[in-house]
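Curious: why these numbers?
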Amino acid sequence: AVGDGWGLASAVRHLGSGLGLGGDHAAAIAAADQAIAFAEAVGAADDAAWWRAERGMSWLRAGDLASARADLERAAAGHAARSAMVLAFADAGLGEISRHAGDPGRARALLTEARHRLDETAGVPSRVRLLPLTGLARLAVSSGELPEARGFLAEAFRLALAAEPPLTQDRPSIAGATEALADLALADGRAADAARLLGYAAAVRGAPDLGNPDVRQSEATARAALDGEYERLHVPAGQLSPDAAVTEVTALAAELTGARFG
């Protein structure tokens, strides 16, 4: 019965994540509620903490910073010794809250701490390792520190593209790095490339991330800069196969960051 419960909790979480990509934050949060309740019922404290941190990130995406902070702080409480990955994930999430709340100094400190903690922790999924890197990159872009942003994004792409064989990498991670790269393209005055990058990200992932406030802001900025040309650039990019989109993204990432991949 416990095994069936784990399977159901995982299925509900997976469904909630997919709905969250479409912007249905309530569904993503409700799915996390069920997963947390099950983990707590069977005494799985670390799993409950991880799912609570994930729910905190869903609250952040929904724009409820207070609920996001409450979940992430509770997830981190008491887990420093038992789960460095939970603590680092929570720190990264709290850093993202500070970034969205307009506190770049605290955001940088928390994201940097999360990055260092993750570097020292084995078995961390690449999507979690990318969170502080893309957050730091966006902070650097917003403060005009573009060389620093290029360095963070180069590291993010090296991580996301690291799987073998080629073109079978962690595609959600590549998509997330690509969306952050669009911010750098905009800062470089390359709105056309930003429009393409947002399309490539959707193609790589298999769907656009309509629930991400950073992506929505990037799209709005690119649309404003392109004066009606956004769809002409964005739509064909989003219609590529995942492998073709990864190839295009890799080339643009090398050009925008000045790094070499592969």
Q: What stands out?
A: Residues 7 and 177 are 30 Å apart (CA to CA). Residues 164-168 have pLDDT under 50 and may be disordered. The two ends are 46 Å apart (CA to CA). Residues 2-21 form the longest helix (20 residues).
